[in-house]
Design brief:
Number of domains: 3
Number of strands: 10
CATH architecture of the largest domain: Alpha Horseshoe
Distance between the termini: 10 Å
Number of helices: 21
């Protein structure tokens, strides 16, 4: 087994080295030379090519299974499908989607480390290096943000994997505390993000990560570490860029509307039949079922925008908790018509009773089989404002300020201002609920619940999935590290939280 794992790790290194060869040529030109890491970073174009590789692992990570792992195993939605992650049929021996997140997350880290190292040692002028280094460090921070949110404590390194020996050394690293990882990254980003162009993400060329994503990551990681003032300061920088939330249309929350002005970070997808494409498959679990063959009739209703070629899988459904306590059909919340679907164009679906279908926020117009060309919204400005409300609530200093930021999303959604302050606990509960209403389906809910320390109880009490309720354990708040990685590390890594419930599954 160790030999097999070693071969897999060596393949990572080969893939990294190959990246430089591919990045230096186009598909249309005749290749006359081969670039290696030692001679590659000579021009800005080459540095940008290396940075492009840092985005590649995102496409294999953000898909319907990550959606299930971060949204459908929570208090606000569930899915009764054969997908094993949906009922937490996972363990260190069979981590399911956890293995994908681990592999792609660390590929992303490796690519970022290589790009950062190459740019730092390139002959470019310092003013040319700065935005490139900022982008690389922001992307590295994002991968570690995802890894720590998903697995908790994980190995941390910033070295460039330039040879097998370095790779083997890194492979023997144990878990580093997630708090320490975030502390390092916050400090690093605070040194470089203020020096970058302070513009909204939609104003960054080709929608690359920029200062806005950097400030958002600082705030996200600071809140995990309970550094409330650091988060407040970072979000204030976003306010200077984005201004009044009311100027951003609510309908822009729909995934089909790409890189809108409110957006801070999106996973970029595109699909053109027969052409170069970067697709995912989330929309297939976000539509009414079933589609009548050869038509655009879904659950008895014609939906022309969905076309007649889509593949519909078992969809996620909102929980009773969400439908009754967060977003009712008749409650006046304008977001309900985007998040949930009881009808289409005035025609009620046949199979909808109390639990509606997923709404048009997630639909992909003219879906071709399961080829989903929507972008996935990871960070939005509304999210940042709700984070600021939470920070002031956690500090318990000025309830009026916390309520002011809470009301920004409530007003845009048409549900009116929060009633009079009574207790900090009640206000915090309302902020938690508002995050569910505003951000449903944006790969956030489980991370929020874990960060608040309520994921297990809140999900167990409110899930609509009987199989999930049977399987859920407190250890599932984080995914296990794959046993293959534990073995390769020489047992420097472990899954002690899982062993407490299941015993050791790691091969000895």
């Amino acid at each position: 087994m160790k030999t097999m794992i070693m071969k897999k790790r060596k393949n990572w290194l080969i893939a990294l080295l190959s990246m430089f060869a591919l990045a230096s040529c186009s598909l249309e030109e005749e290749t006359s030379s081969f670039s290696t890491p030692d001679n590659f970073y000579q021009t800005k174009a080459q540095c940008l090519s290396a940075l492009n590789s840092c985005y590649i692992p995102l496409n294999g990570t953000y898909n319907y299974t990550l959606f299930i792992a971060t949204e459908a195993c929570t208090d606000i939605m569930y899915i009764n499908s054969g997908t094993l992650d949906s009922r937490l049929d996972i363990s260190p021996a069979k981590p399911r989607h956890g293995e994908t997140v681990w592999d792609n997350g660390y590929k992303g880290v490796m690519y970022c480390n290589a790009a950062i190292n190459g740019i730092e040692n390139s002959p470019l002028e310092e003013d040319e290096k700065l935005p490139l280094l900022g982008e690389g460090k922001i992307m590295r921070a994002f991968y570690y943000y995802l890894l720590t949110s998903f697995f908790g404590d994980v190995p941390f390194y910033t070295e460039h994997v330039k040879d097998v020996e370095t790779q083997q050394k890194i492979g023997r690293l144990g878990r580093m505390s997630a708090m320490a990882t975030r502390e390092y990254l916050i400090k690093e980003l605070l040194e470089i993000v203020p020096l970058m162009d302070q513009v909204r993400s939609s104003e960054v060329e080709t929608n690359r990560t920029g200062a806005a994503t950097g400030w958002m990551l600082i705030a996200k990681m600071a809140m995990w570490n309970k550094e409330w003032n650091t988060a407040i300061d970072a979000i204030s920088k976003l306010e200077e860029m984005y201004g009044d939330l009311g100027k951003y249309p609510l309908e822009d929350v729909m995934f089909r509307y790409k890189n809108t002005p409110e957006s801070i970070f999106e996973i970029q997808h595109s699909y053109v039949a027969g052409g170069l494409n970067y697709t995912s498959n989330l929309a297939s679990i976000c539509m009414p079922i079933t589609r009548r063959s050869g038509t655009c009739e879904y659950d008895g209703v014609e939906i022309p925008e969905l076309g007649d070629k889509s593949t519909c899988w078992t969809p996620w459904r909102p929980t009773a908790y969400f439908c009754q306590n967060l977003q009712t059909k008749i409650g006046g919340d304008l977001r309900a018509k985007y998040n949930m679907a009881w009808e289409y164009n005035g025609h009620a679906f046949k199979s909808v009773a109390t639990a509606p279908w997923p709404g048009p926020k997630f639909w992909c117009p003219y879906l071709d089989s399961s080829r989903d060309g929507n972008n996935y919204k990871i960070f939005r400005y509304a999210d940042a404002l709700l984070m600021k409300a939470e920070c002031y609530c956690q500090l318990e200093q000025d309830p009026d300020i916390a309520i002011k930021y809470l009301n920004m999303t409530r007003r845009r959604a048409g549900i009116g201002d929060y009633p009079k302050f009574r207790t900090w606990a009640r206000l915090m509960d309302e902020i938690q609920k508002e995050r569910g209403r505003e951000l449903i389906g944006e790969f956030q809910r489980k991370f929020d619940l874990v960060r608040w320390g309520i994921w297990y109880t809140q999900t167990y009490e409110n899930t609509g999935s009987s199989s999930l309720k049977e399987n859920i354990r407190p250890c599932h708040e984080y995914y296990p590290i794959p046993d293959t990685q534990v073995v390769y590390s020489g047992y420097a890594l472990d899954n002690k939280a899982y062993e407490a419930y299941y015993g050791s599954t790691t091969p000895q």
